[in-house]
Amino acid sequence: MRFRDRREAGQLLGKELAGLHIQGDVIVLGVPRGGVVVAHEVARALHAPLDVYITRKIGAPHNPELAVGAVASDGTTYLDQNLIRSMGVPEAYLQDETQRQRQEIARRMAAYRGTRPEPELKDKTVILVDDGVATGATVLAALRALKQRKPGQLILAVPVGAADSMEVLGHEADQAVCLYAPESFWAVGAFYDLFDQTTDAEVIELLREAQ
Asked: Which candidate among 115, 119, 140, 156 keeps its CA 20 to 30 Å from the CA of 165?
């Protein structure tokens, strides 16, 4: 299964979620940046408000695309200790990189939200949306952080995800919706015809539209 771009993926994902007849007060949270494009279409399909939930990958030394962990906007940190041990990642590096990602989260929060407060999530049906899941580290950190906000129901929704990662994440959310979860998985972008970089300006515009 392939998607033309993030918008098409979001439309298909929105159609799937609409068919589930999800109950309650629903809010859709996109993981910036690319996940917000997908989430925007999901929110439209469900006639639900859209916001962002910022999580940042802690990349491996010399291979920043490989996540050895992640940090969420509330400070919740997930570290893959098995991977860290096998790669011999120094503790000092992890501390420095975690701090760097926290600073980037603060920058994005200011850019995307400005003075607008974070949405109230208690007792709501929260749908966390990303454009895909590879290792699942960033989404795992986000789900664990969101659970502390006491939502009524927490749903993970992605167009594509590695089968083993989705199995793990399925235990973290109340429900996980994934349109395509292949056993053989190399990169999220491989399942899109167009997988260009989403900019801060695009995220801000989509959030403005959703308001």
From this structure: 119
